[in-house]
Amino acid sequence: MITLSNDTWKLLVAPDVGASIAGLYANLHGSWQALMREAPDTALESGNPSNFSSFTLAPFSNRIKRARFDFLGETYQLRATSADGNTQHGDVRSRPWQTLKVSDTELVFSLDTKAFPDFNFPFPFYMTIRYFLEGKLFGTALSLENTGEYAMPAGFGIHPYFNQSLAGVKAHLSFKAEGLYEVDSETIPTGKVAKPDGAYAFETARQVDVALNHLYRDWSELKLNWPDVATLEISADPLFKHLIVFTHADGSLALEPVSNATDGFNLMNQDFAGHGVQILQPGETMSGSIYLKLESP
């Protein structure tokens, strides 16, 4: 475990488990409060990233339906990683990452998929994660380079779980979004997008009082506010045009800035506009950052 901290933040990272975050704490009124759910000891021992505070999604986010997609005239079958026969969350989150840099303000980790013969993706790539602190700002910078001989489809993002209660106060969620994806019974997009409304619209801040596992697009002004305790503003580079909002059974709230839509590889083949998948030529790189900014009374 590696720790990075300043007067506002304390971050715990496990390089051997996807360089995942095991804890993110904020210094509020003189005490450290867990902004994200804390990874239990069992998660560290088992190497299970699903129980961590946050993990990285790459080379795609969320699911690929039936673990299968077509690209440039070829069909690729991946290993299914979910009970419903889909593959989900990519294959970097449980792999051991190399530690490239540890300083007072940043941690940098890398992963070369060529080091893993069983890697669950047909195209090789090299990836880095950079966590950095700048006062009240905590950033995550992702970079993915195609190291193969052929073009590849790609996407990435992060999967953080935030505590809805902080210092005994329940959070209010607010954000704007231009679209909400219609999904099937397996939460796979059907190809239809509508303006969010009713229980699934959060332009007006409110407590989350409905079960969510929803994919939004073209989002902005994302905030979690614990009244009279703290406000967390979440923003990202334009590459991360999609946002998944998910209420976990443990009471935490996942707010996932991601580049591609769920099942984006297959949406791309259906000529669906706005799928978010990047096509990287050999040697090309995609990169982008996600920012958390904390304000307290």
Secondary structure elements and their pairing?
Layout: E1 2-5, E2 9-14, E3 20-28, E4 31-34, H1 41-46, E5 54-57, E6 63-64, E7 68-71, E8 74-77, E9 87-88, E10 98-102, E11 106-112, E12 125-134, E13 137-146, E14 152-154, E15 157-162, E16 165-166, E17 169-170, E18 172-183, E19 189-194, E20 213-226, E21 230-236, E22 242-247, E23 253-258, H2 264-269, E24 278-280, E25 285-295
Antiparallel strand pairs: 1-2, 2-3, 3-4, 5-15, 6-9, 7-8, 10-11, 11-12, 12-13, 13-25, 14-24, 15-23, 16-17, 18-19, 18-20, 20-21, 20-22, 21-25, 22-23
What does this 3D model show about the protein?
- 4% of the residues lie in helices and 50% in strands.
- The protein has 297 residues and is mainly beta.
- The protein has a single domain (2-295), classed as Beta-galactosidase, Chain A, domain 5 (Distorted Sandwich).
- Strands 5, 10, 11, 12, 13, 15, 18, 19, 20, 21, 22, 23 and 25 form a 13-stranded antiparallel sheet that branches. A four-stranded antiparallel sheet has the order 1-2-3-4, with no helix packed on it.
- The protein starts with a strand and ends with a strand.
- The relative contact order is 0.18.
* Helical/strand content category: mainly beta
Strand composition percent: over 45%
CATH topology: Beta-galactosidase, Chain A, domain 5
Please indicate the count of domains: 1
Q: Estimate the mean pLDDT confidence.
A: 96
Q: CATH top level?
A: Mainly Beta
Jot down its keywords.
single chain, 297 residues, mainly beta, Beta-galactosidase, Chain A, domain 5, 13-stranded antiparallel sheet
